[in-house]
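Now for today's protein.

===
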Amino acid sequence: MQLERPTIFFIVNYGGAAVRNILHGGVLEELINRGYRVVLFSLPEHNRKAAEKLFGDQIVVESFDDFRFRGLQKMVQRIRTYHWRTLVPYDVLLQIQRKTRTFKNNLQDILGHLVSGIPFSWWEKILNSGVNWPEGEELFDKYQPVAVLISNPTERENVAINYARSKGIYTACILESWDNLCMRGALYSCPDDMLVWNELVATEARELHFYPKERVHATGIPSFDLYANKDGKIPTEEMWRKEMGIAPDAPIILYTTAAPQIYSQADGIVASLLKAREDGRLPENTHILIRLHPLDNFQQYDIYKDLPGFTIQYPSATFKDDSRNDSSLGKPLMLAATLTHSTVVLNVFSTIIIEALANDTPVIGIAYDVEPVPANRSVSNYLLVPTIRELVKLGGVPVVRNEEELIREIRNFIDDGSYLLKQRVFSKEQEIYNLDGTATLEIAKFVHNRIQQQ
């Protein structure tokens, strides 16, 4: 079956970053505008419905019955993973994943060091030759794709990339997030091009995965295009405060919570903020705004709902809407307004930190446990993750390690709007490549030109 328009396969990781950056970032829309039909894979039911609502019959949603690496390919991927582990703080990653090192890990590390001299081109040749993938052959025959795109190169579905390359079909990764390359393991595939958020991530691609320099491209962040073109799209601060029920002159502390497996002590942070406002360490009129993570336990915050100077924003909220429905695509205008008009943002090292910088809003990284936890479960371990370590080194995001430091840094930002301003501007420039609102267009143009060159 040959569709009327040339077809692109897009394998989208089901996680929130991919959904926001790929489905809602504008790339699919631009590819469709350039005359392509897009076939999406790996979408759970709620994301499938959202995607179909957005794009209608301009997309097709399919699924692989099965996907797995076999034989030599499986062995190569495992060995490359062992090698990758010698280049990152692997023990830290084990701690973050609540795992412990075993004797088997030590043997695997030895093998990783032994294969360190094998050239990238050799691994790539093996991965792209003789791909046995009967589960996908029918889909390729049905749609005859001219390109296969992925959002995460460390997922098993990427056997489709190797299969496509063995057939001479163009492939690319539009990387969904800033931490994939240092946190998720070795690449399951080697797409023709890797399109990443910034030069810091491009360096990780080259140094941690030995990706050829000429095939890694810093292109910016599609979902951040909105932040470069907010005028007239989001409410003014006066309108937003009125909609949110926040006093015109109140400084706003925005605390964006994390998934429980990342940080389960959000209630302790909330209690610290309330206590500091009560005892005068924070201004009496400070408004505390909590934006909940989609995977957070919403019910634990119900005790705060009626407190004065306190607002809970649910992730699926539009203005005046505290719906607890699925938030797979979020409400980007609400998030943009919230980040823009808040005085200071508190976060445990998610992409919200980068988004706050994009909106020129001060942001503080929380790196302490309110209540004692085992060392291997401490949130402070995230400071050793390469992506976060590089962010902290830039100096624009102060890291707090106890309640006293947290309240002090909040007060610094409330009292002085220029506090750490130069460092924040520098951090923004390094973390966000070319924030001019053109990332979506440039990525779609890049992919289109590559397809035309095939």
In short: Residues 71-85 form the longest helix (15 residues). The first strand starts at residue 7 and ends at 11.
